[in-house]
């Protein structure tokens, strides 16, 4: 797991346009926007400014004045999960949407313009995992990385990793890092030699309360402290903090049930 955004600048300055295929944004859809702002503001130190309203009420989360993520309200007439969704950069979102469809995926929203910020589409892969595509205009996407409160990684949980990875490789031009013998059903997607996302298969194991899905990892100063804050703020613990090859990690939910992970990078 490394910084996967490539063109974001952690030390200030306007971010450059993200290379196509790069994870460039994450957005959360919820029922109660005000309570969700309070949760993530207390957890990550985010502030919130109004964002493009094409999909309904929407805010941009900022850290030290730089864009980190977005939050919108679920349409009341649609049965959609409360979930974080990763967006991948594209130079032509309409063309990418066509490729998604031709590879067996679906496009449920868009392509459409988000005011002058850019153009987007929201789709799902053949297994049903939801992701977004972002063609930047005024807003390239996440503008800061590598510090607490910023997205660090995105990992897809699905039934069978190899077939699903081929979908994303075709759509976004990724290369595939060979699986390790100790973890044969895990694929690392690479772009220009850099790891940008992971795909983990569960085989025939049931995904009980939801189907295939993406999980966003956020950098924190300390995973154990972050979990304590999540619980104190009304969230839940799904996977206790544990040490892994990329740092100390825990999986949690916010009060509405949106899953995400916190990762404390090794010192």
Structural notes for this entry:
- By secondary structure, the protein is α+β, with helices and mostly antiparallel strands.
- The chain folds into 2 domains: 23-136, 2,3-Dihydroxybiphenyl 1,2-Dioxygenase, domain 1 (Roll), CATH 3.10.180; 151-264, 2,3-Dihydroxybiphenyl 1,2-Dioxygenase, domain 1 (Roll), CATH 3.10.180.
- 16% of the residues lie in helices and 41% in strands.
- The protein has helices at residues 33-44, 93-102, 161-172, 223-232, and strands at residues 23-30, 47-50, 58-63, 66-73, 83-89, 106-114, 118-124, 130-136, 151-158, 175-177, 186-191, 194-201, 213-219, 236-244, 247-253, 259-264.
- Strands 2-3-4-1-5-8-7-6 form an 8-stranded mixed beta sheet, with helices on one face. An 8-stranded mixed beta sheet has the order 10-11-12-9-13-16-15-14, with helices on one face.
- The relative contact order is 0.17.
- Residues 3-15 have low confidence and may be disordered.
Q: Compute the gyration radius: what is it?
A: 17 Å
Largest sheet: 8 strands, mixed
Shape descriptor: globular
CATH topology group of the largest domain: 2,3-Dihydroxybiphenyl 1,2-Dioxygenase, domain 1
Q: How many strand elements?
A: 16
- What does the average pLDDT come to? 89
Helicity level: 10-25%
- The number of domains: 2
- Poorly predicted runs of 5 or more residues: 3-15
Please tell me the CATH architecture of the largest domain by its name.
Answer: Roll
The CATH homologous superfamily of the largest domain: 2,3-Dihydroxybiphenyl 1,2-Dioxygenase, domain 1
Order of helices and strands: EHEEEEHEEEEHEEEEHEEE
Q: For the record, what CATH class of the largest domain applies?
A: Alpha Beta
Give me the number of helical elements. 4
